[in-house]
Amino acid sequence: MKHLHVYALFLMFVFHTSCGQNQTNVPHDNITQGNYSESQIKEAATSKAPMSMVRHVRQARNGDILIASYLGVFRYDGKSFTNLTSKISSPRFSSFWDVLEDRKGHLWFASKDSGVYYYNGKSFQHFTTSEGLANNLIMSIYEDKAGNIWFGGAGLSRYDGKSFQNFTTKDGLPYNGGRAIMEDKTGKLWIATGDGPCFYDGKTFTVLKNKDGKAFKNVWSIIKDKKGSIWFGDVDGLWRYDGRTFTKVSQRGAYAIIEDKKGDIWTTGSIDPAGGAVWTLSRYDHKSLYDKKPIVSEIKSGGRMGFLGILEANDGSIWFGSGNGVYRYDGNTITDFKSKEGHK
Description:
Layout: H1 2-14, E1 21-22, H2 38-46, E2 54-59, E3 65-69, E4 72-76, E5 81-83, E6 96-101, E7 107-111, E8 116-119, E9 124-127, E10 138-143, E11 149-153, E12 156-159, E13 164-167, E14 180-183, E15 189-193, E16 196-200, E17 205-207, E18 221-224, E19 230-234, E20 237-241, E21 246-250, E22 256-259, E23 265-270, E24 279-284, E25 296-302, E26 307-312, E27 318-322, E28 325-329, E29 334-336
C-alpha cells in the first residue's frame, strides 16, 4: 500500500497501423499547461533556452544537444538554442517528454498527451491512437538495431515505418507501458515499467523478479553497463542485476541512470526513495561500484523532482534536466542556461 500511495503521488505530480497525416497544430482540447503560470508561459515563449521541466536530454549525430522540455523541444548547437517545436505547438500547449534523432537524421518528439511528432527536416507528421499508437502519453522513444522505433509511456508500441504493433499485459508485458527502453548486444530489448524491468527477445517478455519472487515496483530507468550488468531504479533504490542475482547498490532512488566513459554511474533521484523532498545528481565511482558500499558523490542537490534526464556529451560534460530548465557540468562548473548568458 505504501508503494501504491507513493506511486500515485508521483503520477499526480508528473502529470497524467499506418502513416500519420501532416499536421502543424496540436489539438488544444486535450493539452494541459501543467502547473505553469501565465508569466512563466510568456517568459518561455520569448526565452532562447528551456525554462520548464526537462525530462530527457539527448545528443544528435552532429554533436548538438537535444532537450525535451514541457514547454518545447530545443536544439543547442554550442552557441544558442532553437525551439524545434514552435511550429507545431506554442509554449501554452506544449508538454514534451522525449526526443530522438533516428539513423536517417530525422527527429521524433514525444508528448505527454498528444502522441508523437515526426520531423524529416521539411515537414511534420503527427501520430496518435488514430494512426495506431497504443496511447497518446509517450514518455520515451528508442530506435532498435533493425530500425524499428519504439514508443513507451501509457502503452508500448513498435513502428516499422509503415504500421504500429502494440504490446500489452496480454502479450506478457508486466505493465501496459514502458518508461525507458534499451537494446543489448544480443538483441534483447529491456524495458522499465511500473511493475518492474523486463526483456523482450522478439517472441516472449521475461519479467525480472527479486529473490523472493516479487516484482520490482515503479521502475523509471534501465541501462546495461560495460560489464554486462543491468542497472535500474525502483521505489526502494538503485539495483544491479548480473544475470543471476540482484544487488541493492543504494537506497537512493534513480529516476535516470547513465554510465559515463570512465565507467562511473550517474543517477538522478530522491535520496529517500520513499518520497523525500531532496533530489540529487549523484555519481558512483567506477572503482567502487562492485564494493559493498560504493563511493557516491552528490554533484548537485535540489527540491522535489529537482533533477531528471541525464546525458554524457561527446566532450565528457554531463547534461541534466531539472524542474525548470537544463544544466551542464564540465567536471568543475555547473552552468544554468535559464538566463541568456547562463548562470555559473
